[in-house]
Amino acid sequence: MTITTLSSRELNQDIGRAKRAALQGPVVITDRGRPAHVLLTFAQYQRLTGQQRSLAEALAMPGLSDIPLEPPRAGISSRVPDLS
Question: Where does the secretion signal sit in this chain (predicted)?
């Protein structure tokens, strides 16, 4: 994990750089030379806070119904057991 430090000015000038750096680890944002904020990816934030989505919450996500899903039919049939 790489920790990147950016000043508030650097963040304002190149937010894309900060986002790319956040993929590698936390980005510490300084204000007048002192750490003031930390930028994390949402996945890192969830891991840090222990927040996990339930299956019901995941299925209720907006836009999920727009994803085409055609699961194959299961070929389940009954058989007569051989009891000999």
Answer: none
Residues 27/4, Cβ–Cβ less than 8 Å? yes
Asked whether residue 78 is assigned to any structural domain, the reply reads no
What is the maximal distance between C-alpha atoms in the chain?
A: 85
Cβ–Cβ under 8 Å, residues 45 and 52:
no
**In this predicted structure, what is the pLDDT of residue 6?**
95
Number of domains in the chain: 1
Stated as kind and residue range, the H or E segment containing 16 is helix 15-22
Look at residue 67 and tell me whether its pLDDT is greater than 80. no
Instruction: Write out the residue range of the structural domain in which residue 11 sits.
Output: 4-52
Q: Which helix (H) or strand (E) holds 18?
A: helix 15-22
